[in-house]
Amino acid sequence: MKNVEFDPQFFINYLSGTPLDELLCSYKGLPKGVNYMIIGDPGVGKTTIILDMIANFKTLQPDTKILFISAEMNEIDLAIYVQRYPKFADIDILFIEGDFEGNSHSLATIEKVLAEGWDIVAIDSFYELQGIVKEEEDLTMRKTESMLLSIIKKQNKAQNNRQVNTTFLTIQQVTKSGAFIGSNRLKHSITAMMELRLDNPRNIYSDRYVTFSKHRRGDVGVKLYYNLSQTGDVFFDKVRLENDRQLKKLQNEVSSNLHNYADRFTELFNNINLNQDDAE
């Protein structure tokens, strides 16, 4: 790796200006050329969180080229979102269902649009997009997944007209038990797994939080609570985030001390046995 060179700009992350930046990466913000998967309980606000995030990226970095691929909602659905969150109106959106009526070249259309070169692409959702392409191209789900992942990989490596390393934020469906839907290849292609959860999965009104269960660029297990009750922006509870971090720090310290005591006890016990053996 010492012979591999990167442009320093590659390591300047996109910032949302919210506490979420602290979870997205250990050095804050969303990295370039990575793939983040977003899963969560039904109704927890996955689409809202992603739209809020990319709208904030666009506000703080106006020159950032961002695309939202909607395979689940149409123009009317998004218009309702814009009423509550006006900043969503400035996001470029590709409506898959509307554009592909009577079009048998869905995969080619996706490749053509992505070839323009986007800094960030959000997909809602991968499973629905996979299903649409499968039907349009008459492929198996496995083959469709493979082809979509190949396209994403090309964009990660800046194989587009602007030569930018595209980052993908992809919402994925889960089973009723909350398990991830997708192959092992899909799982391994992910840089980080962002989970949106309810404190009580049986109560849609319980507190909601963001956490990472897999993260090559940051911490796992830290909880950032949020709510969608206010108009205009998602509210993230920074105070609660700091409290959670302090708690985890204390837990790690206690765990480390316990391991040290256990090691010292084992060493002492072994020394006693050795002394007894020598005496015999």
Characterize the structure shown.
The protein is an alpha/beta fold and 280 residues long. 42% of the residues lie in helices and 16% in strands. The protein contains nine helices and nine strands. The protein has helices at residues 20-24, 46-60, 75-84, 96-99, 106-114, 126-137, 141-156, 184-188, 238-279, and strands at residues 35-40, 66-70, 92-95, 120-124, 167-171, 192-198, 208-215, 224-227, 235-236. The chain has a nine-stranded mixed beta sheet with strand order 3-2-4-5-1-6-7-8-9, sandwiched between helices. A hairpin with a 7-residue loop joins strand 8 and strand 9. Helix 6 (126-137) packs across helix 7. The protein starts with 19 loop residues before the first helix and ends with a helix. The mean pLDDT is 88.
The largest sheet has its strands arranged as 3-2-4-5-1-6-7-8-9
Number of strands: 9
Supply the helix-strand structural class: alpha/beta
Mean pLDDT: 88
| Radius of gyration based on Cα positions | 23 Å
Separation, N- and C-terminal Cα atoms: 56 Å
What characteristics describe this protein?
9 helices, 280 residues, single chain, 9-stranded mixed beta sheet, alpha/beta, 42% helix
Describe the SSE topology.
Layout: H1 20-24, E1 35-40, H2 46-60, E2 66-70, H3 75-84, E3 92-95, H4 96-99, H5 106-114, E4 120-124, H6 126-137, H7 141-156, E5 167-171, H8 184-188, E6 192-198, E7 208-215, E8 224-227, E9 235-236, H9 238-279
